Amino acid sequence: MTIIRAACVQMRSGTEVAPNVAAASALIREAAEQGAMFITTPEMTNLLDIRSGMARPKIVKQDDDATLAALRALADELGVWLLLGSIAVTLEDDDRFANRSFLIGPDGKIIAQYDKIHMFDVEVGDGQTYRESRTYRQGEATTLAYAAIGRIGMTICYDLRFPALYRTLAQAGAQILTVPSAFTRVTGEAHWHVLLRARAIETGCFVVAPAQGGKHADGRETFGHSLIISPWGEILAEADGDEPGVVWADLDLEQVAKARARIPSLGNNQMNDLKSGA
């Protein structure tokens, strides 16, 4: 399969799980009706609540998570590949959580999962201070999923600022990079488009980036503008601002090899041969 229709579901997740799952499910169905066979949702699809301690009682083990169960069943019903951008799950050996992304097959089975490696510990100038490392344990491994629709490199949000991760995934064979996100409005306005296009150009991969957007119930504002980008850095689809909805594009995976042949930077590793000055 060389051409697949991919879709980004853009959301405005709130502080209660059930309404978020209902909203995600409706948009996933809409994407499937538009012919999408690979459908992606944003970071923290089921729950966005940065208020101290408020989200903790609603976070459970992966095996007990109602969102994961519901979307696995939906993928099976619709016969689609589904990237659940991320949910928070409890860990057995840590009081913190994992921010975990799941690739679900058209039979509802979990094909691959990825824990966010880079923690968003910053002050961005929107009146909020973010310290993800207090709440989430960073992941320790990259994830390249081998699926019938292509080889998918899985990342989450703040990972986007670390190009070595994407180069590693591309050199390992990734054709599509997923970047489910909840970018703040301030950082999104400044950097979202340019960073995503740069990752596509640097790796010669398609980039699929479903996003949260708008003013959320917990007070935060996210940027939206979900994007699908070609291996040459062209924007193939973009969501309308920060409004919830679906955008899609057809991905011709043969374009990956063509882009890399034109700019073979993945095979150029001269920096490894440089010696430090005396």
Q: Could you characterize the architecture of this molecule?
A:
There is one protein chain. With 278 residues, this protein is an alpha/beta fold. It has one domain: Carbon-nitrogen hydrolase (Nitrilase/N-carbamoyl-D-aminoacid amidohydrolase, 4-Layer Sandwich). The protein is 26% helix and 30% strand. It has 6 helices and 16 strands. The strands form 4 sheets. Strands 5-4-3-2-1-16 form a 6-stranded mixed beta sheet. Strands 8-9-10-11-14-15 form a 6-stranded mixed beta sheet, covered by helices on one side. It has a two-stranded antiparallel ribbon with strand order 6-7. β2, α2 and β3 form a beta-alpha-beta unit. α1 runs parallel beside α2. The longest helix is centred in the C-terminal third of the chain and has 19 residues. The radius of gyration is 18 Å and the shape is globular. The mean pLDDT is 93.
What's the oligomerization state? Answer: single chain
Helix and strand succession?
EHEHEEEEEHEEHEHEEEEEEH
Q: What strand order characterises the main sheet?
A: 5-4-3-2-1-16
Provide the number of structural domains. 1
Uncertain runs with pLDDT below 50, 5 residues or more?
A: none
Outline type: globular
In CATH terms, what is the fold-level topology? Nitrilase/N-carbamoyl-D-aminoacid amidohydrolase
Class by helix and strand content? Answer: alpha/beta
Kindly provide the radius of gyration, computed on alpha-carbon positions and rounded to a whole number of angstroms.
Answer: 18 Å
Indicate the CATH architecture: 4-Layer Sandwich
Helix content: 25-40%
- End-to-end separation in angstroms reads 52 Å
CATH class: Alpha Beta
